[in-house]
Every structure is written in C-alpha cells, then in structure tokens.
Amino acid sequence: MAAITLPAPGQPHVTITADRETSPLDLAPETIVALYKAHGALLLRGFATELTSFRGFARQFCLGATFNESRGRQMLDEAHNIQSVNRGVAPFPLHPELSREPWRPDVCFFGCLNPPRAEGATTICDGVEIVRQLPADVRAAFEGRRLLYLQPAVPEELERWLGTSNPDDDCLAAPPADCPYSFWRAHGQILRGFTRPALHRPMFTEEPAFGNFLLFARYLLGLNTFPLFEDGSQVPGALVAAVKGVSDRLTAPIAWQRGDLLMLDNSRFMHGRTGVRDAEERLIATYFGYLAFAEPDAEEPANAPWRRPGFSPPRRLAPKERAV
Q: Quick one: pLDDT at residue 324?
C-alpha cells in the first residue's frame, strides 16, 4: 500500500509514495479526494506516470479542463487540453493558474514526463499560510478590498460574450447572465473587467487565502496597473513587497523526478518555478481542470460556461503576441 506522508514545516504538500502500485490510477479516488480537501497539495512519487495515465488520473476527478493561451506551451493532447508548462528558462513568481481570468480552474495537475537534470524545480506556496503570517497592518490593508482585472476587450471576446463584435451601449450595460465580465467605454475603446476579493476563501477551507495575479504581474511582467484595487487605484508596492517577503519564506520546491504527479488546489495554492538550465529536457504536462466535487465560488455566474462541456475561452491574441 502506498505510503502517505502528511505536510510538515518546509513541506506544505502530502507525499504519496508508491509501494506495489505502478500507476497513479491504482490509488483509491476517495483517498485522493479526502487528502486534497484537507491539505490542497498532493505529490505522487514512484509511479509509472506517462501521458495516458496522467490524463486518466486527472480526468477521473474533473468535468473538463480549460485551455491556457499563454505563450511558450507545447500541446501534448489537444482533445483533452493537456499542454506542457511554459518551455522557457526564466524563473516564474508565484501565481494561481489563470487568476487573471474569471474562469480560474479549480485544480492544477502537473506530470513529470522528463525531469531536468539540474534546477527547474516547480515552487508551491499555501495562500492560507501567507495570510496567517502577514503583518497585521498588511492584512488589514487587503481585508475587505477587491482586485480589478481590467483590459481592452477584443472583438472575439465581444462576439463570444455579447453576440456581436460591435455592441451598442444598451448591450454593454446588460450582458447575459452567464457572462463573467462588466463592460465600459473609455477613451474610444471598450474595456472588460471583473473583480475578486484581495483575500479570498478557498474552496475547501474557511480561512482566507492570498492567491491572485499580483506577484506575477509585478515581479515578472513589471505591471503596476494590473490588477488594481476596485476603486481603480494601484496596489501600493510596499504591500506587494510585504506579501512577497512572507511568501518567499514559505515557498517550497518540488525537485522533479520522472513520473511525479502533483495535484494542486488552485483556489488555495500558488505555484511558480526556479530558473531552468535546459528547457529542452524539462517536460512537464499540465491539466487545468474543473472538479466534479467542486464547491464553486459564489463570485461565479450560476451554471458558469466553463463548468459545462465544450467550453473554450476566446483567444485574445496571436500566439507570438500572447502574454505569459
């Protein structure tokens, strides 16, 4: 029977080590679900995980998965939205997957098909623990605030959500019930936006968590205006730096071994990576899914489109132009 090691200081994830099992599909799904709800991060190690078993393991828990349009990814299984991680070499700050969009997936699955010989670890950090350890004044500055994700709306998005690429003001003011955006006209263009709490409640715990796009935007993309506070003001750099200081202390690396499979609660944990020495040898599969046992966020529209079969987000830009 597989050995289960619970989280400990410096290791925020459960480790499930294979014994007589060969495939991750040999594990009891109810055990995985219980551990996932309680701890939010599971590392399966010592299993013969390849693309087929990775897909089968992820899909047994999910209704479907979303496509990540960010650049630098290799499509591994188009029919099931299985892609590689970004194939570049730069280190990535912590972020929840696709937190810049309203259809943030519930869960991230990562499968190591070919490990790097050196460096290239994936990093993880528990957003609940970040909030627990924030200085009182920093936590107070975020409590009760919301983050605004505001961008120009491209024609494909307007067509997808409003049914026309040239909407009038009445159409902009009354989007369909399942549309996740609000729309505005400003400076000769149409903007689309949504907000989320700066400190939110993850899916399976009542404690607040920090998990949003701020660290990625500030420390990789150099953006001070995305996201903003809900009133349109910038989030002060000192607040973001204070969060980074806490999260840096709490971040733990996953040094990949062949066959490793990581299941991460994307509503609770953030992830990133260290620098990669050889991008060609590091091949990590991803599946960004919507759980069959999900407790959807009240912020989502009822019967959200991404929780229905066949959802595909509008693609904003040509591949060479897409932001990370």
A: 45
Tell me the per-residue pLDDT of 55-100, one tens digit each, with 9 for 90 and over: 999 999 999 999 998 889 999 999 999 999 999 999 999 999 999 9
Could you tell me the residue range of the domain that residue 234 belongs to?
1-324
User: From edge to edge, which strands make up the β-sheet containing 182-186?
Assistant: 182-186, 189-197, 146-152, 228-229
Residue 138 has pLDDT above 60, yes or no: yes
Count the domains in the chain.
1
At 170, give phi and psi (nearest 5°).
-65, -40
Question: pTM of whole model > 0.70?
Answer: yes
CA 177 to chain CA centroid, Å, is 24
pLDDT at position 265:
98
Q: What is the edge-to-edge ordering of all strands in the sheet holding 122-126?
A: 92-95, 269-273, 122-126, 252-254
- CATH number, residue 146: 3.60.130.10
**241: its two tokens:** 């730096």
Three-state secondary structure call for residue 176:
coil
pLDDT digits (tens, 9 = 90+) for 7-27: 999 999 999 999 988 999 999
% of the chain with per-residue pLDDT over 90: 90
The phi and psi torsions of 16 (rounded to 5 degrees) equal -115, 110
Q: What is the DSSP string of 98-144?
A: TTTSTT--SEEEEEEEE--SSB--EEEEEHHHHHHHS-HHHHHHHTT
Alpha-helical segments (H) within the chain:
29-39, 51-59, 127-133, 136-142, 155-162, 169-173, 214-216, 237-250
Task: Please give the Cα distance from 235 to 162 (Å, whole number).
Answer: 31
Rounded to whole angstroms, the Cα distance separating 238 from 244 reads 10
Q: In whole angstroms, how far apart are CA 158 and each of 70, 313, 322? A: 20, 12, 18
